[in-house]
Every structure is written in structure tokens, then in C-alpha cells.
Design goal:
With 139 residues, the protein is an alpha+beta fold. Helix content is 41%, strand content 31%. Keywords: Signal.
Amino acid sequence: MRWIQSLLLLVLVSLLAACASMTNEQDLLNRNQYAWSKAIRWAEFEGATNLIDPLKREEHALTDVEMARYEQVQISHYRDLGASQDMEAGTAVRDIEIGVVNKHTMTERTVRYREEWRWDEPSKTWWLTSGMPDLWDGE
């Protein structure tokens, strides 16, 4: 009887450890999504690139001309329209609405953007895999 109690206790401790790990990953996702939102909202585009998956960042590095385009806009709003996560698969998606104001013409338009995130176990971090938002979508 005693070994059954010990086994049950071991199983419960293992389950609690797994839950703690999931909560930690969720907290890290929330922090990275907040940091991304903040960087985009306050037009800190160069800093935002640090949250992009390093492989994607290397493959699609922003040119000086592309970075200059980002400097010509101001963000008026950044709204979360919905999100989903699959912690076991290490993926998350968030649909975003971004208000974009052209600094030269002072005209505003709205752009939709889908953030795609992946959990990187070796570095214990979430990386954005969808890249920078296309603030000129349709133009």
C-alpha cells in the first residue's frame, strides 16, 4: 500500500512540474508579445527586429531603404483581435490591427497583421517567425 502512495505522489509531483513549465512558457510568450507590441507601437522598429527568429532575421534582413520607410510612419494603435496558442507544439498566433499614420501626409490607414510565434527549447525563448509587419499592404 505504501508503494502505491509513493507512486501516486511521484506522479502528482511530475504533473505539477509539467504545469509549472507550461506556465513559464506562457509567461515568456506574454512578455515577448508585449515587448513586440510596445516596440511596434512606439516605432522602435530596429529594436523590434531583435524578437524575430534569428534565422528569419538573417534571411530577410531589412535594408537601409526598408528601415527608412518604417521611419516615415507613426503607429496610432496596435490592437489584439484574437489569439491562439498550442503550448505542446510550441506555437502561437495573434491577429493584430495596426493604425498607420504617414508622417508626411498625416493620413491614417489600418493594416491587419498576423504574428506567428515559435518556442525555441534550446534558447528557452519565443521567436517571432512572421517577420516585420507590412505597413504598406495594398499600396
